[in-house]
Amino acid sequence: KDKDLMKCAFRSPSDS
């Protein structure tokens, strides 16, 4: 689950 959170964290800014 930790990986999912980290993935979304760096993916959010990248997507935006």
Order of helices and strands: H
Q: What proportion of the residues is helical, as a percent range?
A: over 70%
Report the mean per-residue pLDDT as an integer. Answer: 62
Dominant shape: elongated
Distance between the termini: 23 Å
Structural class: mainly alpha
- Largest β sheet strand count, sense and barrel closure: none
Percentage of β-strand residues = under 5%
User: How many whole angstroms does the radius of gyration measure?
Assistant: 7 Å
Based on DSSP secondary structure assignment, what is the total number of beta strands? 0
Our count of helices gives 1
Low-confidence runs (pLDDT<50, min 5 residues)?
A: none
Task: Please specify the SSE layout and strand pairing.
Blueprint: H1 2-15
Question: Which key phrases capture this entry?
Answer:
1 helix; about 15 residues; single chain; elongated; mainly alpha
Please give a structural write-up.
The longest helix is centred in the middle third of the chain and has 14 residues. The model has no long low-confidence stretch (mean pLDDT 62). By secondary structure, the protein is mainly α.
Brief characterization of the structure:
The chain is mostly helical. Helix content is 88%, strand content 0%.
